[in-house]
Automatic annotation (TrEMBL):
This is DUF1045 domain-containing protein. InterPro entries: DUF1045. It comes from the Bacteria. It comes from Undibacterium rugosum.
Length: 239
């Protein structure tokens, strides 16, 4: 069954979006795969394999993890709720994003005060939770097979996702697990060089994304801009 997700994707930051798309070999706005960056000392097939899951989700950071709509709700209800939610939000600048190791995988992480980002993520989790269908038994069992702490299991039961509240870590995923590959350091060094951008990375809206069936690529359905971004766009159009 289809799932929806609330992501940050740098649609309004072209340099970052292009860098992420080239790194993963796919644009989240398109189901098809595209050109992937060639990395020195790493065979293209190896990099392609080690970014398979990250590529399926697209270049993004999770605000509210994928969920099925609760009974009685439709996509239009989710879109209306997003419209209302984003109308009262302001742009957040992600401080000094850098390539970091997160356990076994690589991701872009903020380097500084994350309080605004964390607040946005928790508000996104809470405000849309009435639209989320409960996890099915098989979904819950699959999550419980992971190495989750007692606290993460409680969050999983409450929010349908274990990495919320104080367990949340904002990140844009760059690879799958690298622990069993000799290419890990070369991929890390290549990522550091590739994402050494000077442009600010800003959260200017929420991306509504969609998975048509289990295992299908997530695609961007619509970007819901924050209030200040909409006002700026309107001013430019009327100028």
């Amino acid at each position: 069954m289809a799932r929806y997700a609330l992501y940050f994707s740098p649609i309004s930051n072209p340099a970052w979006l292009q860098a992420g798309n080239l790194w993963l070999g796919r644009d989240i706005r398109d189901m098809r795969e595209g050109q992937q960056l060639r990395v020195t000392d790493v065979a293209p097939k190896v990099l392609h394999t080690l970014t398979r899951d990250a590529r399926r989700y697209g270049f993004h950071a999770t605000l509210k993890a994928p969920f099925r709509l609760a009974e009685g709700y439709q996509r239009a209800d989710l879109e209306q709720a997003l419209q209302t939610f984003c109308a009262s939000r302001s742009t957040i600048t992600i401080p000094a994003p850098q390539v970091s190791r997160m356990g076994q995988f690589l991701a872009l992480r903020p380097q500084g005060d994350e309080s605004q980002i964390n607040a946005l993520a928790m508000h996104s989790v809470r405000e849309f939770d009435h639209l989320r269908a409960p996890l099915r038994p098989e979904e819950l069992a699959r999550r419980q097979q992971q190495q989750l702490s007692a606290r993460q299991l409680r969050l999983l039961s409450h929010w349908g996702y274990p990495y919320t509240e104080e367990e949340f870590r904002f990140h844009l995923t760059l690879t799958d697990a690298l622990d069993n590959t000799d290419s890990a350091n070369a991929i890390y060094q290549a990522a550091v060089r590739h994402f050494a951008l000077t442009e600010p990375l800003q959260i200017e809206g929420i991306a509504l994304c969609y998975e048509s069936e289990p295992g299908a690529p997530f695609i961007l359905l619509q970007q819901f801009p924050f209030a200040a971004v909409r006002e700026k766009s309107a001013a430019l159009l009327s100028a």
